[in-house]
Amino acid sequence: MKPINVGLLGIGTVGGGTYTVLKRNAEEITRRAGRPIRIVTVADKNLELARQVTGGEVKLTDDAFSVVTDPGIDIVVELIGGYGVAKELVLKAIENGKHVVTANKALLAVHGNEIFAAAQKKGVMVAFEAAVAGGIPIIKALREGLTANRIEWLAGIINGTTNFILSEMRDKGLPFAEVLKEAQALGYAEADPTFDVEGVDAAHKATIMSAIAFGIPMQFDKAYIEGISKLDSVDIGYAEQLGYRIKLLGIARRRENGVELRVHPTLIPEKRLIANVEGAMNAVLVQGDAVGATLYYGKGAGAEPTASAVIADLVDVTRLHTSDPEHRVPHLAFQPDQVHDVPVLPIEEVITSYYLRMRVEDKPGVLADITRILADSSISIEALIQKEAAEGEAHTDIIMLTHQTAAKNANAAIGEIEALPVVQGKVVKLRMETL
C-alpha cells in the first residue's frame, strides 16, 4: 500500500516528539491506519536541530512554503504556532489540496472560521486534536463520542502552567510571584508567561471546545478572560477552610438566551474529582443530557503526550484520505450549514455564585450593614466566616459565599459595600461552580 507522505512544519518540542513517536511505533500505526505514514520533509529555521532530531533521514528545508506547495506531500503538520506565518502556511496548504493537522489553538480560536470554510470548499480536512489538552482526546470525545447528546456545559482545567502554580500556592502557602519563578525554573512556565497566567491560552482552548459542543462559530473575541496573577494565597486558604479548591477553569455553558464562554479562577467543591487535579495535569468535565457527566484527564502538554494527539489525527486523516468529503466527520461536529451563530453572553449576564472577602473595621453593626446591602440586591448568603481580629489590629476579614446571582447584581452590591466607611480597600470577588 502506497505510504501517506507528511510534511512537518516545525521540529521543536512537539515536532520532535511527533517524529520520534511516529518512528518508534511505525509498525503499530501502519496496522491501525492501513498504510504507512511517513514524514518525508521537515521545515524548520534551525536546520541543525532538525538534523539532530531526524538523523538526516528525511529532506530538510528552512523554507516552509516549499513544503505546502510540494505535490508529493499529502498531509501538512503545522507545529509552528502563532497567528502570523502559520495562518499563511495553513491556508496555502489547503489551497494546494493538502490535508492539515495542527496543534495551534491560537490560530484556530481566532481564524478557525476562515480556515474551516477554506478546507470545506477545497474538500480537505483540518484536524486539531492536539490543540486542546495535549494528549487527552477531548476533541474526538466531543465531536464523535458524545454525538447523541445535547451538551449542556463543559468545564476544563486546560492550562498546566496555571494548575501547577495554583497547586503549589495551596500546598506551600506561597505567593503567586514566588511560585511563578519556581514554575519558570522547572520549565512549566515560559519566560513571558502572560498567555498562560492571564488565561488567554485557556480561552483559546475553551473557544474551540464551545464551538464543537454547541455547533457555533469560533468566537474568541467574545470570551471573558481573567487570569490568576492577582490571586492571593490567603483566598486559597480561606476557600480550603470552606471546603473548596480554586482552579483556573475554562467554562462554556448553554443558556436559553445564548452561550457562556469564560475563563477565570473558580471555587470548586473539594469532593469533585476535577478539584483534585494537581500539578501540570489537565482535565475536562463535560455534561451531556443522556450520558450525564464525563471526565477526561491526562497530560495537557509535553513532547510525547501532544505528539500522541498529532499522530492520532494523522491516522484519522489517512483512513479518510480517499473518502467522499461529504461523508467525513465535520470540523465542528455539526454539518457546516447547521452551525448556528448563537450569541456569547456578556459577563454581566452570567449567573453564578460568589466568594467575597472584605477587610472591615472590627466593630458592631458592620456585618448587618453588609448583609443588608446584599439582601437589597436579592443576594442570599450560603456560608460566612468572620475572623477574630488579631491582637492590636483594628480590622478583620469577613468571607462570604453567596447563592447564585447575575454578575451585574453582584457588582452593584460590591460597589455599595466598598463605599461603606468601615470597609478597607476593594472586595475580593471570585466565582464559584458546583459542577
Fold topology:
Blueprint lengths: L3 E6 L3 H12 L1 H8 L3 E7 L3 H8 L4 E3 L2 H5 L6 E4 L6 H11 L3 E4 L2 H18 L3 E2 L10 H8 L5 E7 L2 H13 L3 H10 L8 H4 L2 H15 L9 E2 L7 H9 L2 E12 L2 E12 L11 E8 L3 E8 L3 H18 L30 E11 L4 H11 L4 E6 L8 E8 L2 E2 H13 L3 E10 L3
Helix pairs in contact: 1-13, 5-6, 6-11, 8-9, 14-15
Structural overview:
There is one protein chain. By secondary structure, the chain is an alpha/beta fold. It has three domains: 4-135 and 303-338, Rossmann fold (3-Layer(aba) Sandwich), CATH 3.40.50.720; 138-298, Dihydrodipicolinate Reductase, domain 2 (2-Layer Sandwich), CATH 3.30.360.10; 351-432, 2-Layer Sandwich (Alpha-Beta Plaits). The protein has helices at 13-24, 26-33, 47-54, 64-68, 85-95, 105-122, 138-145, 160-172, 176-185, 194-197, 200-214, 233-241, 303-320, 366-376, 407-419; strands spanning 4-9, 37-43, 59-61, 75-78, 99-102, 126-127, 151-157, 224-225, 244-255, 258-269, 281-288, 292-299, 351-361, 381-386, 395-402, 405-406, 423-432. Strands 7, 8, 9, 10, 11, 12, 13, 14, 15, 16 and 17 form an eleven-stranded mixed beta sheet that branches. It has a six-stranded parallel beta sheet with strand order 3-2-1-4-5-6, with helices on both faces. Strand 4, helix 5 (85-95) and strand 5 (99-102) form a beta-alpha-beta unit.
Quick summary:
With 435 residues, the chain is an alpha/beta fold. It has helices at residues 13-24, 26-33, 47-54, 64-68, 85-95, 105-122, 138-145, 160-172, 176-185, 194-197, 200-214, 233-241, 303-320, 366-376, 407-419; strands at 4-9, 37-43, 59-61, 75-78, 99-102, 126-127, 151-157, 224-225, 244-255, 258-269, 281-288, 292-299, 351-361, 381-386, 395-402, 405-406, 423-432.
